[in-house]
Amino acid sequence: MTGRRARSLRIAILASVFAASAGPRAHATEGSLAPIFGERSFHVLHVPFLDFGPADPDSPAPGRVTARLDAAYASTFSSTWHALTIHKALGRVDRPFAADEAAKIHSDFPQDRVFFLESDLLRIAGVARAGLTPTLSVSAELVWMSHDAIHGGSAVEAFHRAFGLEQSGRNEFPASSFAVAVQRRGREMTFDDRVPDSGFGDTTATLSWRPRQSSPWSYGADAAVKAPTGSARDLDGSGSWDAGALAFARRDGRKWTVDGEAGVVVPGRWRSGPRLPVAWFSRVLAGATRSFGSRTRAGVSATFEQSPFRRDDLGDLSRPGLEIALGVERDLSPRSSAALTLTENVPSLGDRADFGLALRLRFR
Predict the structure, then answer these.
(1) Are 147 and 119 in contact (CB under 8 A)?
(2) Mean pLDDT over residues 85-94, rounded?
(3) Could you give the CA distance from residue 193 to residue 178 in angstroms, rounded to a whole number?
(4) Which of 88, 84, 308, 274 is nearest to 181 (CA)?
(5) Which of the following CATH numbers is that of domain 3-74+129-144+197-363: 1.10.10.60, 2.20.25.420, 2.40.240.10, 2.40.160.40?
(6) DSSP assignment, residue 183?
(7) What span, in angstroms and rounded, lies between the C-alpha atoms of 60 and 296?
(8) pLDDT digits (tens, 9 = 90+) for 159-177
(9) Over the range 13-36, which residues count as b (16 or more CB within 10 Å of their CB) and which as e?
(10) Contact 129, 138 (CB under 8 A)
(11) Tens of pLDDT along 203-247?
């Protein structure tokens, strides 16, 4: 890791810890609402845009502050048949996908839709939420991202082998490689094997509405705006403003909590290398969480989401995708908790990150 990247990492960690440390001093609660286990999309081409993770059902009282620190790793590998076939034909198995291979594909198949995506991602986010009224709160999310800090491709391949899953060509390329190659029908091929610089991503502000409810049923809504503070060149941001809205409903039982969500995002232009046209996209989530005693909760969720590129003709990149998440959370103290969430793509549908692992610390 270069000195500049190391400094960026230290700044991000210190900023997140500072935001989180305000939470315990500012607000204490007698318990914690069950979280909704799930994550935003960590696909390499989705990360630059505004995207909703599961709604936070908590709502701090007026003048109170809560905080959250998220650290997530994800791995993306997907390809049309072109790159896999050319790579083998040229005898380059175990070598990175190269620019001359992309050029040959474009020369031989200029009218085909083509993509080759290989990337690791570490995303660290600090979120502070402040209560405005008994029903309204506002939050801000600061993000730091790196495509080079962690390389977990070998672990993903080992997981696939252990469970007899297909590698889908992943094991024919170095596990630590980065490459983004995309060709729309009849358009130029864009190719980038330059590992993006690590840095801060786009910043998101959210206004949340949580009406007080005494019955088992509760509901709420979020409205979010993302500012282009990240680098579109390094896939840390889109280079433009995005906006979105999310609504959720839940039913709390003695042991089980059931959640449902629906959201929509309207992205601006994408000013990155591929310059793919983007369109508004929606998502729905269904989840269930079970309490085990007063301190531990475990749950599962399914998220079905459209692609930001749904109006283009890019095969799996344009189709809706489905992710399954499993998670567990345990209270560390009356004011803090830690959660671990594992997310897996359902490959028979659209293109999503193959695998994601997220650690979340909440401070109340």
Answers:
(1) yes
(2) 92
(3) 6
(4) 274
(5) 2.40.160.40
(6) E
(7) 21
(8) 666 666 665 778 888 888 8
(9) eeebeebbeebbebbeeeebbbbb
(10) yes
(11) 999 999 999 777 899 999 999 999 999 999 899 999 999 999 999
Six-digit token string for 78: 């997907």
Q: Which two tokens stand for residue 318?
A: 């344009």
Q: pTM to 2 decimals? A: 0.86
Query: Would you state the structure tokens that stand for residue 187, as one six-digit string?
Result: 């358009």
CA dist 174 and 70 (Å) reads 28
Give which of 105, 108, 123, 149 is closest to 51, Cα–Cα. 123
Task: Check: CB of residue 224 under 8 Å from CB of residue 204.
Answer: yes
Of 309, 312, 287, which is closest to residue 298 (Cα–Cα)?
Answer: 287
Instruction: Write down the pLDDT at residue 32.
Output: 62
- CA 182 to CA 200: how far, in whole Å? 25
Closest residue by Cα to residue 251 from 286, 292, 298: 286
Residue 271 CA: distances (Å) to CA of 23, 99, 121, 241, 276? 36, 21, 20, 11, 9
Q: Tokens 């999503």: give the residue.
A: 352
The torsion angle over the Cα atoms of residues 155, 46, 314 and 176, rounded to 10 degrees, is -30
Which of these, 160, 135, 156, lies nearest to 42 by C-alpha position? 156
pLDDT of residue 276: 86
* 21 secondary structure, DSSP code: H
CA 36 to chain centre: 15
Domain ranges of the chain: 3-74+129-144+197-363
Q: What's the DSSP call for residue 170? A: G
Distance of alpha carbon 143 from alpha carbon 200, whole angstroms: 6
Separation between Cα atoms, residue 360 and residue 124, nearest integer Å:
10
Gap between the Cα atoms of 40 and 30, Å rounded? 29
Q: Rounded to an integer, what distance in angstroms lies between the CA atom of residue 361 and that of residue 364?
A: 10
